[in-house]
Amino acid sequence: QVQLVESGGGLVQVGGSLSLSCAASGRTFGLSAMGWFRQAPGKEREFVATIDWSGVHTYYTDSVKGRFTISRDNGQKTVYLQMNGLKPEDTAVYYCAGAGGSVISTLIRDYRYWGQGTQVTVSS
Q1: DSSP string, 93-118
Q2: pLDDT tens by residue, 107-118
Q3: How many helices (H) and strands (E) does the chain have?
Q4: pLDDT by residue (tens digit) across 55-64?
Q5: How far apart are CA 124 and CA 112, in angstroms?
């Protein structure tokens, strides 16, 4: 079993930066791909970024490429999402998720574990 706890959300102005963290518990963290998803009001949850078990391979949704960076520290059992150049359309609840396998995935169904979410609000 893996438990995930996000932190680092908040209110920021357009063009600003935030860094999200996701602390994990459980022995399989180092073997699992991890992802960040987000859900805006009235919209479905969507993929943002993913990283494989080693931290070598990453993938981003087009709208955040060049602005967001996902990384992980397996020793600390933590996944990060550095968000720069934030836009109003980035406003959402951001969720950390742990996959059932070690390979990156953009699909919600491939993720077994979810955090409670952290609110990110970008004001214009």
Answers
A1: EEEEEEESSSS----GGGEEEE---E
A2: 999 999 999 999
A3: 0, 11
A4: 999 999 999 9
A5: 35
